[in-house]
Amino acid sequence: MADFFSKAEVTSSGRPVLLRSEVECHLLSSVDIESEDNHHFYPLKSGLLILTTHRLLWLPSSSSSSTSSAAAIPLHAISHIFSTKKSLKSMFHSPRIRFQVLVSPDGRLFDPASGSGSSSGSGSKSIVLTAVVRGKGDCDGFLGKLWESWRARAWECNETSGSGSGSGSGTGTSTATSGGLYSSDGSVRMVGVAGILRKEQEMWESTDKSLQDAFQDLNALMSKAKEMVMLAEKMRQKLLSGSSSQTSGANDEDMGSKEEMQDWLLSVGIISPVTKESAGALYHQQLSRQLADFVRTPLQRAGGMINLIDAYCLFNRARGTELISPDDMLQACSLWEKFDVPVMLRKFDSGVMVIQNKSHSDEEVFARIKGLVTKPEALRSGISPSDAAITLGIAPAMAKEHLLTAESKGLLCRDISPDGFRFYINLFPEIDPRDVYLVKDYGICNTWIKAVSTSGLK
Amino acid sequence: MQKLGEFKLPHFFNYPPYFTLQPVREAREKQVQLWKELILDYCRTQKIFVIGLEEEFPLFSNSVIERTLSHEAREAFLSALVSEGHAEWLDKGHRKCLILWHRIQDWAEIILNFVKDNGFEHSVMTVEEIRSGIESRGTEMELLSTACSLEIKLPWKRKEKCT
């Protein structure tokens, strides 16, 4: 009979009305609920079984008889959930979920909401119910979720926060599990100002602890997500209200702690809306200056130019802990434009990004390259990036960038062959297409011919 | 001075970058220009009409410096000739190129003048007759006709003003 179960409220479109802070977890379709023991029990046929954090709801499908209405089994009333035993018989049957529920003396399902007070039931009897899953749903998954929800005891959280008074630490607790801890350890009674301060302190401690718990385990985070959202909202509100109200100068301390809060938020990856508008968070500014100082030595060693990736590795290694992300690095480097530091970030045409001294001049490098490439040996067989690297005293990758830049300026020409990628001095401007056999007496062509012919090439 | 057969090669033929397609604009333009002239000169003096891109062409490699023009480079230079009117692709796949060291209009002029000079205006001649005729000997008409007899379709037929 429907009277056995608690009534579940349903909206006009057939959706169940959930209790406060009740969340749906899983559902299965085409489920019958039967009882093995009690034959007076009128089985519920072919409905939708919904698992929430607080109850098991059974909703009749539209095709079933109109006499059955939505039923609810509070998870609180479940005393035991049987695990599925895989047997030969179970292979031919539809999957089943068996659980034991407490029955109150008047023959109905035990329902704590109907005013039977706290803790486990006064009902002495219990019967076993079976949910037969005739549809295609994931029965094992549902069973797992049922276990979880039943163990989480979400309804108890409501009860403890509902009760409120007592040792006064109830309002501060944020987790269902820790709610039990605080009330049972016989904490100090709160009196006067000391009590209020103590309460605040405990609240912050528990927030801190809950943050730590949350970030340790993603599953735990998901369950605490609601609290986190509320916390973040509170923080945001505080920051926004703090910045918008331009109060008197007595707020220095506030400002200090506000910046601390911003830093703290930044360190957990939350970008405060206040800092987005400003020229860059304090964190990035400090980092930028620190980076400029640090990078000076490696720059000198590397001959004035260092690959951004190399700089990133060196910097992080030097820091040891509190490593920075590549994004932080990029931001810090781009902030250099705003300060007066002797280093700058430069991006080559090929996409390679380097850090170089502001005093570095391309012209000087080109002059050195030209000197290198007009030597007789280089006139004959050109130079490779490694040759340039040795002469210029910089890394081969940097040397290649310089050579490519020199090429685009018309100083060099490339020569690609099975021997590799080489560069020669650019002779094309000197060649006159109207008289290709003419070689000017002055000019690089002449030098080149001389150099080439001495090696026996004609 | 290096030679390719009887042909005198310019000094920059031994300049390795000459054989690599240059990416920088100024260098590329100059390079293309030099190659165009070189190809036309060579074909004119060696009486070469057709260049096959995938075949060995002596001008396209230099064994002294061990460099060869890549297929991409060859196509680039020949396409430049085509767009100037000094060459024509013989197939859609750009595998064979007809070199016209005179442009098509110029060839048409030559035919026209030949016909006029020799009074052939109102007669019909076969290609073979032109080739073996006394008038043609030693002139460019002989060359032209030889090319014809090699069964190369000559696009200038559409420019013919005489029969």
From TrEMBL, chain A:
The UniProt record lists the GLUE N-terminal domain at 8-162
Span list, region Disordered: 158-180
Q: Which Gene3D superfamilies match?
A: 6.10.140.260, Pleckstrin-homology domain (PH domain)/Phosphotyrosine-binding domain (PTB) (2.30.29.30), Winged helix-like DNA-binding domain superfamily/Winged helix DNA-binding domain (1.10.10.10)
GO molecular function per UniProt? phosphatidylinositol-3-phosphate binding; ubiquitin binding
Q: Where in the cell is it found?
A: Cytoplasm; Endosome
Which UniProt keyword terms apply here? Coiled coil, Cytoplasm, Endosome, Protein transport, Transport
**GO BP annotations, alphabetical order:** protein transport to vacuole involved in ubiquitin-dependent protein catabolic process via the multivesicular body sorting pathway
Name one cellular component (GO) term.
Answer: ESCRT II complex
The family database entries (InterPro entries) matched by this protein are listed as: GLUE_dom, PH-like_dom_sf, Snf8/Vps36, Vps36, WH-like_DNA-bd_sf, WH_DNA-bd_sf
Checking Pfam families in the record gives: EAP30, Vps36_ESCRT-II
**Reported function:** Component of the ESCRT-II complex (endosomal sorting complex required for transport II), which is required for multivesicular body (MVB) formation and sorting of endosomal cargo proteins into MVBs.
User: Which family does the entry's similarity section mention?
Assistant: Belongs to the VPS36 family.
Q: Could you give the subunit structure recorded for this chain?
A: Component of the endosomal sorting complex required for transport II (ESCRT-II).
Under what name is this protein listed?
Vacuolar protein-sorting-associated protein 36
Native species of this protein? Durio zibethinus (Durian)
Q: Which gene encodes it?
A: LOC111297973
Automatic annotation (TrEMBL), chain B:
What is one Pfam family matched by this protein? ESCRT-II
Q: Name one GO biological process term.
A: protein transport to vacuole involved in ubiquitin-dependent protein catabolic process via the multivesicular body sorting pathway
Q: Which domain of life is it from?
A: Eukaryota
- Keyword terms, alphabetized: Protein transport, Transport
One GO cellular component assignment for this chain's record is: ESCRT II complex
Q: Which InterPro entries match?
A: ESCRT-II_cplx_Vps25-sub, ESCRT-II_cplx_Vps25-sub_N, WH-like_DNA-bd_sf, WH_DNA-bd_sf
Entry annotated with the keyword Protein transport: yes
State any single GO MF term.
protein homodimerization activity
Family listed:
Belongs to the VPS25 family.
Record-given protein name:
Vacuolar protein sorting-associated protein 25-like isoform X3
